[in-house]
Amino acid sequence: MLIFNNRKKSDNSQPQNASAGLPKAGDALPESLKAHSNFVKRVNCSQCGAPKSLPSPTAYIYCDYCGALMDYDFRMANANTNAGLTNTVYHRLYAGLQGPILAARLKGDKDAARALYRQLFTEWLKECPLAVSPRAQTDLAFREKEIAYLAESAVVKDFDPRQAPLDAEMARLVAGFQRIAQPGGAWRIVGGFWEYADVFKRQMVMVYDLMHQLGVDAMDPDNPPSGVALRMEYTTFCQAWLPHLSPEDGERLLKFYGLDGQYDEVEPQKTDQHKCGVCGSEMQTMPGAKKVVCSTCGHTLDIGSGDVPCHKCGALLAFPVDADHVVCPYCQTDTRRV
User: Fold this and answer.
1) Rounded to two decimals, what is the model's pTM?
2) CA-to-CA distance for 190 and 128, rounded, in angstroms?
3) Residue 292 host element (H or E)
4) What was the pLDDT predicted at 161?
5) How far is CA 115 from CA 121, 212, 239, in A?
6) Domain boundaries, the chain
């Protein structure tokens, strides 16, 4: 998931804790940002064609049958005030590195810029673990690949000369915004926003086309279907601006970026039960599923091959794909397939 400069507002305060003073779980959210907790986003898997049937506890929607990443749910991305956290923390961290990053860009030094972005995204993931796949919280190798991908994506954009005039246009437009104070200390945008949103959209299409040409998209450890990464980019943009738009304009913005997806009400499903062999979480899975992603630790589990009993405590464990042994999360006994 990328956060290219959304230019919400300048924040040069750079507190030691970049999330200081930001919304916490339980704080009030605008209606447009509330998650559809009792609904399932209507989407079919691009790998096996199966429809999504079980509700996703995270914004990352994985297939109930093969474990492939299917989509990114804008509404779930905003659960527990993640919107205010992820964007503002990024901008606070970026403010502290903006000078050196600009200097590296002016010198044409991609290595220096890449190192700075790695530093930025490493800190960002510490502050905002829910901004990326749940696997990045527990799998350090996956986390490093995620950081490398995010950093390389930022370098591609920064060093594309076609972006400079679009950046200047974005800066001109945002400088012309009028901010109207609202009750409770909030503010609302007036003037020029839709032209701004259109320029950002054109920017991102250009960036992701170039990333594909250079093979950078292949670095994404989540291996998302075509279009999902770009949709995630639009999500971060909307997260930054929805609190400052009227409800009507908020819905218009979601439609403009194709984020007003259809949702089906959750219906009772006949499910099987498995225990993750990595973290021990209990999971409900669809009958006939071959691979599923644990929503707690993010590992893809091979449930099609059957669960393996722990050699000591007997717990039935679903092994990660391609793993021949696990350390039982209940009794810490090394357990191997037989």
Assistant:
1) 0.76
2) 30
3) strand 291-293
4) 95
5) 10, 22, 27
6) 31-59+70-264, 272-336
